[in-house]
Structure formats: C-alpha cells, structure tokens
C-alpha cells in the first residue's frame, strides 16, 4: 500500500509505474514497403535504399547497395530509360528524383575510386555454372552467381564482352571508356572468361549441360527483324540494326540527304541521330506510337527512352507520331518517298491493343531512303530447338528457368518480352538467384511479393518543393558522334538531388515520431532498432493514438489492431 | 533476438538524447495536444526550470498521487493563480541568487478567464517568468464547457448548437493582443504542428529578461471531436487557414509572423472536427457562420500580413520540413 | 529596545526581524499600515526582501505560496474581504503543508460594509487548516509574529496571527522590540524540506484519490494537534530570551479562583482587565484568554475552566442562524465533565466599542435568563420595523 507523503508530494518520473500501454487497441508498427522506384526497376535496384545512403555521405555503401542488384550502374545510369523515375512518387509532388543521374554518379565514382564489388570468396563445394553471352544479361548472371561464391564460366562468341552495349550503343550515349571500365572491373572478379567461343560452333549446348550444373543463356538481339510488308521495297534496302552495327564498327556509313526511319525504338532513334550527325539534311522517324512522356500509356509510347527521343528532336530529327507506312514511292529501284497514314493502337474486343489505320489521312514524305528499324531478334545458333519455332525462348517469367529443363535458364533479349539493359540485368540476377537456390537444394525462386507505397500514403506536409537537379546537356549544335551528350551531376548537385528523395516506405530518421509522440513512447536509438529505423516503440506506454503513423512522412509506420 | 535486446527500454529511455521534463505514464487522452505541447516546451526549456501549473487537464493527468510525470520541480496550487504562484517562485529564486527559470503553465480557462488577473499582475510587475498557455479552446477537464477562448460557432456543452443557436455566440478572445498590450518583452503564438518554430519561441522567451508569454494552439481530440491521430493535421490547418496566426510581438509591436504560403479554406479545418459539424448542415444559418469564420480567417491574414509573397523556408509549408537524420532548423 | 510605535509599525518591524525574503500583499483597511511599513523598510534598504505588491489578495497568498515552496521565507497580511478572497489559496497552502506567516488585521466582513474590527474574517477560515493565534495586545502581536515563523517552519504549517484591526493595528504605544540578534538566535534560517529545486525535482500539489484523501486530511489534523505542545514550548523558549510570554494556548488572568469566568479572544481582554480595576465593587471574574484557536486547546481549556459555575464566552463573531462560534466549541470541550453554565455573547461587531462599563453589564446580563446566545449591547429600538 502506498504511504502518504507530507503534502502528498510525488517523486519525479514516477508515472512510469503506470503502464498506459494497456489502453492500446491499435499498435504502431514499422513496416517497410517498397518505394515505387524499387518496384518499377527492371534490374531490381532499390533506389530508395541506396539514395538514403548517398544522402548521408556513405557513397561507397550506396554503391554497394546499388550493385547488390545491378553491377553496371555507370552504364545503366547512362542508357536506362529509367522507369523508376516515371514511377517516382516525387513526380506527383514536383519532379521525380533524377535517379539515373545519381546512379551514374555512383557508377563513375566507383570506377574512379576503384571500389571492389562485394563478392563472397569462391566456394569449392559449389558446382560450376556456365553463362553464355557476355551482354548485360550474361554479365549480370555471371556476377550474381560469382557474388554468391559460384565458379562461373562466361562464354562469349565475340572477342570482347558487352554484347548490345558494345554493338549498338553509340559513344555519345555510352562512352567506350565507361563500358570498358565497368566490364573490366566485372571480369576481374575471377570469372572463367572464354571469349571467341561461339555456341553451336565452338561448343554445343549439350556439352555445356554435361560439364556444368546449370547454364544461363543470355544471347542478344543481333539480327534486325525482317520488314515483312506487302508493298514493294528496293533490293538495296538497309535495315536499321545492321546499319547501326556497321557504324559502331566502322565509324561511318553511307549517308543519304534525306531519310525516313521506320520504328520507334532506340535503334531507330539512335540511327536517326547518327545520320543527322553524319550530315543528313532531313531525318524523319515514322512511328505507330507517341513520344513517351507523362500521360502517355505504355502501350502507346515509343519504346525508345524519352530522353533520347527528346534529344533527337532537339538535334533536328522529325518524329511523325501515330503514323504507319502504307507503301514506298519508287522510281525504278530507287526510293523517292513514302506514303504514310494515320494509325493508332486501339484496344480491341479481346482487350488487346491492335493497330488501326484511318482511311483518308494519307500523306507523302519525299525522302531518298527508307530504313526499317522495326525490331530485332536473337540469333538462335546453337539453341534453335529451345525456340520451338518462335523468335524467342519461352521461360518462366520470373526466374528465367526453361520449362522442362533442370539446368537451363535464359534471360535478356532472348526472352522476347522486354529489351532494355536494366531488364536484362534483372533477368540475369533473378536467374542467378534461381540457379543458386536450385543448386543448393533450396527449391525454386518465388516472385517477391512486395507491397508498394503509394503517393497517397505519404505525408507531404513534411517535404519542401525543390527543383530536380539536371545534368548539363550539350547544346544540339555542338553534339558530335564522339562526345557524350549528357554529362554527370556535379557533387553539390548530386547531394541536393539525393536529399530530395522522399524515402517512400522507409525510415527517413526524421525524428517526427519521436518528436510528436504525446506519450513519450517513441525512443530514439541506433543500436536497438533492428529494422533499419532509428526508433523503437515503447509498448509499455504507447496508447496507440496513431499520431506517429499519421505524421510519418514516408508511410513507414502502420497501425494494426491489437486483437 | 540478439543485439536487439541488449539494452532495456528503460535504459534507452533514460539515455534519450534530449532532456525529458515530462515523461511517459501520464493519463492524457490519445493524441492529446496539450501533453505533446507540454513535452515540447519542457524539452526546449531544459532542466534548470521550475513549473507552476494551474488546475486543468495537464495537472490532473500528470500527477495522480503517488505518481508524477514531471522531472522538473513542479507546483500546482489552484485554477486561477498560476501567474501569481510563478511570480512568487521567481521572486524567491531571484532572492536566492538561483538561475532556475520559472514557467507558468495553464490552459485557456486558466489564462483567458479565471487566471487572467493573476497573469496580468505578473506581467505588469515584470517577473522573469515564461507563461505558457495551452489553448484547447474550452474547459476540457470538466467536460468541454465554453471558455473565453472557444472559437465563434463552436459547439460545447455550455454553448451547444440547437434549433435556436449555432454554437458559441461570441468571438474568441484576442488574448495575445491583450497580453502584448502589457508591453512585455516577448509574446508569441505557436502551434504543436510547427515544432521547430515552437521550440525556438520557447528558447527565445526564456532568453529575454522579463515576462514572456507563449500561446500554444493544442488540439483536444475529445473536445474538438477528431481522431487522436489527427491532432497535428488539425493544428496545422488552423495555422494554414489563418484561424490561428503564428505571430511574435516584442514590447507590444508585431515583429514576426509565420507567412502562409497557400491559405487553405476554413472548411478544410472545420470539417475535421465534430464541434463544427452543425455548420455543415442544410440550415441557412450554417452557411452564414461558415462565411463568418472564413471572414475571421481572412481578417487575420490581412491584419497580420500573413500572406507570403514567395515560398519561404519558414512559412506555413516550409517550417515543418524534415530531413534525413532529424535535422530541423530549431 | 522600548519604542513608541503604532501597532502596524511594530508588526512590520517584527516581520522584518524575521528576515522574510518575499512579502506579498494587497492593500485593505486595516491591514494597510503593516504592509506600507514593510514596503518602506524595503525601500529604505533596512529589509532585504522582495516586496511584491500584487493585484489581489488571491495573488498575495499565491505569491507567498510560490515563494515558500521555492525555498524562501514568505509573509503576507490581509483583512476581511481580502481574507475571504484568499480563502481558496489559504486552504491550499495549509493542505500542501507549506509554512508561512500571515497577519490577519481582523475586520468585519461585508455586507453590510464595515471597515471596523471584529473576528468574522478569521473565524471564516477556521477550517482552512491554518494555525490561528489571537493577540491581546501589540506586544503579544510582536512576540507572537516572531514565534509564528518558527512555529510554522518547525511544523510545516501556515500560521495566521490575528490582530484586532484599528484597536491594535492603529494604536500607538510603548513597545519592546527585540534585537536582531535575539530573533536570529530564536529563528533559524528558513529551510523547507520539500523546496522546489531543479537539482532534486519534486511535484507538489498532486491529485489525491479517495484512496489517500482521508489520510491526507487526518495527517493534517494530527499535525495541527501536535502543534499544541509546540505553541507552548516556543512561547516558553521566547520567554527565556526576552522575559516575555504570550500565554501559550490559554492564559488565565483576573481572579483565578473566581466561580464566574469570561473567555475571550484578542484585545478585549485588556478592556476587561482595566474594567475590573475600575469597577472594584463588581466581583472579580476569572479571565480566560484563548490565544490558540486552531489547534483548539481543549485540554488546556478544561483546566482553565475547572471549578467555574458560569462561563461567559465573549466573542467578536458568530455564526448566523447558529450562535457563538467559540462558545460552541468551548461547550463541546467541556462536555462530559462538571459543566459550568455557558453564556454566549457576540460583542463588538463591526467595530462597536466595548467600553469599560461593559464589564459590570456583562456580569449582570449573564446572571439573567436570556438564552444561550445573545448579542451584547444590542439596541432593540434600532432594529427594523415589522420584524427582521
């Protein structure tokens, strides 16, 4: 029984004896939810995570977090169409975080500093794995297997690694030094590097299946798709991808005075920009789709990166959106023009978009040459049976496992369902994880089910509008073939940009919960918080009012019923 | 289950990297604005402080014998004398040559109404006391009765809305102007929604020599009829609508305001609270009162020049900006 | 040192000798001269004290409370309406067990408005939990005030020293003022065991539930009762130093063996003593001075009343619709032993003079059969027409 004190005085802080936590019917919890940038990244990068490290000046830690998903940040920071930025919640507040700029910044910094990839030592107990094709998918698969201690043989037909990165990405987008730098860094990880080894010629798939516990196939699209049209074409027709490859190899190609390129992908756009640089007076791009941008549905957007299209237009390339080619105007075997018609993909009764052309909207473009750049396909030499008559290898959409095979996996261009460097990196990574699981007897790799935090779940009162930091871009008149169009962010810019990140779904360590709890039931700690935040809830006293959850800027705190 | 539990929560609480003048275990309602405000004030004020507390929720929920949530010397006497008790404490410490700062704390009832005279006397005599009024705009401790601070048209148990009345008939007393008319060194308003601003004002008030007054808008979820989780949101809207201007007055002169970047309509604020629910009825008088409250907000904005010309880091939208690592401007 | 001083001036000097650090006061007749004199002592640099001239008696008590809790010796003074305005805080001070001294310059309470002396103000605070000591003359007022500080601080209870307004406060006479050394020797520096100190924080003024409220009140009651012996002891200690005592709890004067006694409080005692000299033909009575009204000295009173046939309780207050306040308590104290006949008179209300001839008239009236409670010197012809 409590004794009375004179005058009924109470001693300081004695209310701690009263555990107000017993009042609680709702409990606050830290719940990490994926930022939209994370969910949207085909390579699987958690940009929110590595930007958070960047923001506190832990650049190497940020780079390590980044390369835990994507080993090619200097490259993808330059060439990726960054769907992460389209998904970025900040885009609905002011402008999305320039994630690609920060990625590039870290990639370049790593090359400059010579940071080593964090990999586990080779584990002799683990079986060897073969990776065929040293493009982005193959490099990623090899890296992620190596990261986990597997011995990896990387088999490549060409003398150099890089695949599409080397064969189709012009210098002004991806300088050779950057490509060389990141690839050399990767190959130095102790991979069994086997160049000049062509599948079907120097080694067979059967041999690989015999010699290795698993085989990852990452062939690139090295063949331009045939222009399958009902109208007449000249026999001198040049195809986009091959022309691009030729320019990459030779540094020059025959350049007409005026040209129409058919297609809306990166090949079409790059080719247009190159021909413009080589002196073509008129470069037209004819595409079924629209220029990508906010409000443009994915199915209706040109597959090319928005940034590239924008720069091409700046450079004088004329884009004809929503147009289809009806026929070529020929004078003998010579092209004198192209007849276009308005066209649009419309969703049909079956729910799938289908190209529809509109009678009475025909027009003629006077050009000397028409170049189709309507897609690419893999060169299936050495694994034709896997295609089963299709232009791609059917695989498990998530793991890349070839159905019916215990050892075979495939990813990148060979899948036929996506075509970016980041997607290829992601394919390689997931396949590597799936292979590792399978070889360790841990079963199959299941898709990550990841709740993504929406814009509405953020508390925007705690953020301030800040303009996005844009890297310097060469004025169109100064753009030449062998100079990068876009430069990197300056250090101060990068720091400002990292600071703009809303930290969606993850603890910002902003102190809001700690500061605003009326019941002093949020305690600040670096040591004890095991969930990556800097706070713990003291459930002995927390009454469950929900103020912390409501005022958490990032949506990292959720309220759950106690019973 | 390893390193996570090497430190007990009690140890962690004891080692929090800021002063805790008011600790947990108190009996405030969920989401209590006053509990939060008192915690923020004591944190900002630091340990060499003694508190004189008027009767009211804060006193009751912090000190049910034998418990106390206070970690500062604290004295509660009666409802109407916080200003005078604080004055006596200050006089004593001054005579003893002690540096201890005295903070008087009272609700709006203890400030606007029953304790007003004692407050005025304390100010007039120039005691070096910070008087903090936690304004939740009614007598909450006794069950939500109207006070001199209750806003116009709010319903309370003694100004109920009904067929013949639209809630409180009278205006909210303009206490800060009255206080400032004592020409004390510093008088200011603050809100629990703007923590950095509040902390800066507490520190400034304690730095000035002579009496200072801090009027803190502190929502009462129970009395205002909103969720406890909405306390900050409601408080923020009071500022952003112009209904509760954040201002500073030195020697009676207006010296600073928190600019409003984008004034919000008063409806946004009122609609969150059941005490204004009758204003959203079909009754034509409700429309009049809504317009009236909007006019009061507009009037504040005009009188205090609250409309910011440009976005400002310390305006109604910039002042609560957070940064990674908890770096705030005050 | 013997000086010719007005009562209020003497009281101010006595308070100053006790070295209060904070004095808070609001003016009200007849307390004004006391606090004016203290203010002047401070202004003249003769008293190192913060004189806080507040805006109401409520605040005067509150400032004194705050100061006492913060560790400073505190003092206030008031009268009448002021005492009543303070009453909320006075209850609080006592319940918190905070030591301090206040002078009540006794005055009637409105309405009707009267600025003159009676004891209704102090009696209204009977149940506040303060110690109440009544002074028969200004020398007692000086000595009791000094004793009161030590009494308050040793018991951690507040003490109200009751001094008749005008009759004492405004009367000039020759008085002994003790030396500062004597007072310093008697009264150690103030030390409050529960002082508000930021290095050892305490919470004073908590909310006490029914679980502890009875105990809080009971311990307060017993603390007051323990004060009975302390009042006697300190009066004796003071006598050791100065050679003067104030009569402890209850003092018997006049004819100790008389069978008729008059019990009274305050300055009327001197009038009765003088009257017994003037009217030598009237039998001498036993004069019983009730110095301590709270705590109530029941035992000392029983001893003082032993052997009486008649006890006249002659008091300057009453409870309307009830009767004599002190008389009721005296009767209760004597109940269960050989009871004298107790006759209760309310006298000197609102400053009505109690002249020397009151004594023979009182003795005569007491012998008459007129009920247990009567108004002394009531003028029936002045009562309202047609009933009350």
Structural description of this entry:
The complex is a heterotrimer of chains A (563), B (330) and C (388). With 563 residues, chain A is α/β, with parallel strands linked by helices. Chain A has 4 domains: 19-32 and 506-561, Alpha-Beta Plaits (2-Layer Sandwich); 36-117 and 457-499, Fumarate Reductase Iron-sulfur Protein, Chain B, domain 2 (Orthogonal Bundle); 129-223 and 377-439, 3-Layer(bba) Sandwich (FAD/NAD(P)-binding domain), CATH 3.50.50.60; 226-374, FAD/NAD(P)-binding domain, CATH 3.50.50.60. Chain A has 18 helices and 19 strands. Chain A has a 5-stranded parallel beta sheet with strand order 4-3-2-5-16, with helices on one face. Chain A has a 4-stranded parallel beta sheet with strand order 9-8-7-14, with helices on one face. In chain A, strands 10, 11, 12 and 13 form a 4-stranded antiparallel beta sheet that branches. Chain A is globular. Chain A starts with 25 loop residues before the first strand and ends with a strand. In chain B, 35% of the residues lie in helices and 14% in strands. In chain B, the strands form 2 sheets. An 8-stranded mixed beta sheet of chain B has the order 2-1-3-4-8-7-9-10, sandwiched between helices. Chain B has a two-stranded antiparallel sheet with strand order 5-6. Chain B is globular. By secondary structure, chain B is an alpha/beta fold. Chain B has a single domain (18-303), classed as Thiamin diphosphate (ThDP)-binding fold, Pyr/PP domains (Rossmann fold, 3-Layer(aba) Sandwich), CATH 3.40.50.970. In chain C, strands 3-2-4-5-7-6-13 form a 7-stranded mixed beta sheet, sandwiched between helices. Chain C has a 6-stranded mixed beta sheet with strand order 10-12-11-14-15-16, with helices on both faces. Chain C has 388 residues and is α/β, with parallel strands linked by helices. The relative contact order of chain C is 0.11. Chain C folds into 2 domains: 2-192 and 207-242, 3-Layer(aba) Sandwich (Rossmann fold), CATH 3.40.50; 252-382, 3-Layer(aba) Sandwich (Rossmann fold). Chain C has 12 helices and 16 strands. In chain C, helix 1 crosses helix 2. Chains in contact: A-B, A-C, B-C. Chain B binds chain C through residues 47-50, 52-53, 59-60, 62-66, 68, 70-78, 80-81, 83-96, 100, 117-118, 120-121, 124-125, and chain C through 21-22, 24, 48-50, 52-56, 58-60, 62-72, 74, 88-89, 92, 96, 196-198, 200-209, 212. Strand 2 of chain B pairs parallel with strand 9 of chain C.
């Amino acid at each position: 029984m409590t004794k009375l004190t004179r005058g009924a005085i109470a001693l300081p802080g004695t209310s701690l004896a009263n555990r107000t936590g017993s009042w609680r019917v709702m409990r606050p919890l830290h719940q990490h939810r994926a930022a939209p940038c994370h969910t949207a990244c085909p390579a699987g990068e958690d940009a929110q995570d590595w930007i958070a490290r960047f923001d506190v000046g832990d650049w190497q830690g940020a780079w390590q977090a980044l390369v835990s998903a994507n080993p090619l940040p200097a490259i993808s920071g330059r060439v990726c169409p960054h769907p992460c930025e389209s998904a970025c919640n900040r885009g609905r507040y002011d402008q999305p975080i320039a994630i690609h700029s920060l990625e590039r910044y870290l990639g370049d910094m790593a090359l400059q500093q010579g940071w080593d990839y964090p990999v586990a030592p080779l584990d002799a107990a683990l079986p060897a794995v073969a990776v065929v094709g040293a493009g982005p998918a193959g490099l990623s698969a090899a890296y992620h297997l190596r990261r986990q201690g597997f011995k990896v043989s990387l088999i490549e037909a060409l003398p150099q690694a890089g695949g599409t990165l080397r064969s189709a990405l012009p210098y002004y987008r991806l300088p050779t030094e950057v490509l060389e730098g990141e690839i050399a860094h990767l190959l130095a990880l102790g991979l069994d590097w086997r160049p000049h080894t062509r599948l079907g010629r120097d080694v067979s798939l059967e041999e690989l299946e015999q010699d290795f516990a698993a085989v990852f196939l990452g062939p690139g699209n090295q063949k331009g798709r045939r222009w399958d049209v009902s109208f007449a074409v000249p026999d001198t027709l040049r195809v986009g991808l091959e022309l691009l490859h030729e320019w990459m190899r030779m540094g020059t190609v025959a350049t007409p005075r005026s040209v129409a390129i058919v297609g809306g992908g990166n090949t079409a756009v790059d080719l247009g920009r190159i021909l413009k640089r080589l002196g073509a007076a008129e470069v037209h791009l004819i595409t079924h789709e629209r220029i990508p941008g906010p409000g443009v549905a994915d199915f209706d957007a040109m597959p090319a990166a928005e940034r590239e299209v924008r720069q091409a237009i700046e450079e004088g390339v004329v884009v004809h959106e929503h147009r289809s080619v009806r026929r070529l105007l020929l004078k003998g075997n010579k092209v004198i023009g192209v007849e276009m018609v308005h066209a649009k993909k419309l969703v049909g009764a079956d729910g799938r978009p289908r190209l529809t052309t509109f009678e009475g909207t025909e027009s003629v473009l006077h050009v000397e040459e028409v170049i189709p750049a309507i897609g690419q396909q893999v060169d299936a030499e050495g694994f034709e049976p896997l295609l089963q008559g299709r232009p791609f290898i059917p695989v498990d959409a998530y793991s890349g496992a070839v159905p019916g095979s215990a050892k075979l996996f495939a990813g990148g261009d060979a899948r036929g369902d996506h075509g970016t460097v980041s997607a290829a990196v992601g394919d390689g990574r997931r396949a590597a994880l799936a292979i590792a699981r399978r070889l360790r007897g841990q079963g199959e790799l299941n898709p990550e089910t990841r709740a993504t935090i929406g814009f509405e779940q953020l508390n925007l009162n705690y953020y301030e509008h800040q303009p996005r930091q844009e890297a310097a871009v060469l004025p169109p008149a100064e753009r030449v073939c062998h100079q990068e169009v876009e430069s990197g962010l300056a250090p101060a810019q990068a720091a400002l940009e990292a600071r703009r990140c809303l930290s969606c779904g993850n603890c910002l360590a902003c102190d809001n919960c700690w500061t605003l709890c009326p019941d002093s039931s949020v305690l600040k700690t670096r040591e004890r918080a095991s969930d990556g935040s800097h706070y713990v809830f003291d459930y002995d006293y927390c009454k469950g009012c929900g103020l912390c959850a409501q005022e958490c800027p990032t949506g990292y705190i959720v309220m759950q019923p106690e019973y | 289950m390893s390193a996570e539990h090497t430190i007990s929560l009690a140890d962690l609480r004891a080692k929090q990297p800021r002063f805790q003048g008011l600790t947990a275990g108190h009996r405030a309602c969920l989401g209590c604005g006053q509990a939060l405000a008192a915690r923020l004030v004591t944190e900002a004020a630091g340990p060499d402080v003694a508190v004189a507390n008027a009767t009211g929720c804060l006193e009751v929920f912090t000190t049910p014998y034998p418990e106390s949530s206070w970690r500062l010397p604290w004295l509660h006497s009666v409802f109407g004398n916080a200003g005078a008790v604080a004055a006596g404490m200050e006089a004593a410490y001054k005579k003893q040559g002690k540096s201890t700062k005295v903070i008087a704390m009272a609700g709006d009832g203890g400030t606007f109404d029953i304790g007003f005279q004692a407050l005025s006397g304390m100010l007039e005599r120039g005691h070096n006391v910070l008087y903090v009024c936690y304004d939740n705009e009614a007598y909450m401790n006794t069950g939500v009765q109207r006070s001199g601070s209750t806003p116009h048209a709010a319903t309370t148990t003694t100004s109920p809305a009904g067929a013949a009345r639209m809630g409180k008939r009278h205006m909210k007393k303009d206490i800060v102007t009255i206080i400032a008319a004592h020409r004390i060194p510093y008088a200011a308003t603050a809100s629990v929604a703007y923590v950095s601003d509040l902390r800066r004002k507490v520190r400034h008030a304690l730095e000035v020599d002579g009496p200072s007054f801090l009027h803190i808008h502190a929502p009462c979820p129970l009395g205002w009829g909103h969720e406890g989780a909405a306390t900050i949101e409601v408080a923020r809207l009071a500022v952003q609508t112009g209904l509760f201007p954040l201002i500073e007055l030195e020697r009676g002169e207006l010296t600073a305001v928190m600019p409003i970047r984008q004034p919000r309509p008063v409806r946004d604020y009122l609609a969150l609270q059941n005490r204004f629910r009758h204003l959203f009825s079909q009754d034509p008088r409700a429309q009049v009162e809504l317009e009236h409250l909007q006019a009061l907000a507009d009037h504040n904005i005009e009188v205090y020049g609250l409309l910011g010309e440009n976005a400002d880091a310390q305006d109604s939208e910039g002042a609560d900006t957070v940064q990674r690592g908890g770096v705030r401007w005050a | 040192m013997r000086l010719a001083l007005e009562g209020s001036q003497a009281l101010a000097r006595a308070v100053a000798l006790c070295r209060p650090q904070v004095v808070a006061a609001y003016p009200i007749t007849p307390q004004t001269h006391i606090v004016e004199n203290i203010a002047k002592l401070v202004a003249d640099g003769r008293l190192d004290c913060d004189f806080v001239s507040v805006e109401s008696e409520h605040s005067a008590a509150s400032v004194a409370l705050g100061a006492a809790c913060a560790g400073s010796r505190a003092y206030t003074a008031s009268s009448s309406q002021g005492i009543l305005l303070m009453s909320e805080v006075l209850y609080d001070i006592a319940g918190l067990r905070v030591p301090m001294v206040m002078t009540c310059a006794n005055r009637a309470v409105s309405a009707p408005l009267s600025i003159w002396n009676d004891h209704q103000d102090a009696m209204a605070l009977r149940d506040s939990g303060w110690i109440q000591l009544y002074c028969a003359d200004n020398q007692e007022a000086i000595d009791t005030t000094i004793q009161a500080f030590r009494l308050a601080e040793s018991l951690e209870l507040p003490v109200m020293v009751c001094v008749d307004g005008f009759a004492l406060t405004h009367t000039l006479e020759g008085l002994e003022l003790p030396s500062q050394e004597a007072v310093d020797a008697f009264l150690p520096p103030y030390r409050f065991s529960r002082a508000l100190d930021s290095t050892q924080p305490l919470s004073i003024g908590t909310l006490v539930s029914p679980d502890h409220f009875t105990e809080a009140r009971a311990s307060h009651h017993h603390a007051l009762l323990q004060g009975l012996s302390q009042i006697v002891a300190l009066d004796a200690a003071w006598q050791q130093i100065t050679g003067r005592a104030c009569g402890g709890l209850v003092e018997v004067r006049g004819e100790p063996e008389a069978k008729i006694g008059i019990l009274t409080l305050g300055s009327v005692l001197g009038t009765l003593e003088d009257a017994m000299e003037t009217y030598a033909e009237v039998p001498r009575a036993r004069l019983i001075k009730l110095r301590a009204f709270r705590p109530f000295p029941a035992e000392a009173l029983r001893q003082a009343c032993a052997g009486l046939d008649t006890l006249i309780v002659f008091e300057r207050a009453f409870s309307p619709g009830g009767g004599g306040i002190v008389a009721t308590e005296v009767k209760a104290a004597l109940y269960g032993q050989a009871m004298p006949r107790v006759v209760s008179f309310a006298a000197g209300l609102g400053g009505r003079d109690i002249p020397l001839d009151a004594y023979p008239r009182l003795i005569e009236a007491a012998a008459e059969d007129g009920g247990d409670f009567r108004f002394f010197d009531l003028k029936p012809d002045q009562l309202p027409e047609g009933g009350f």
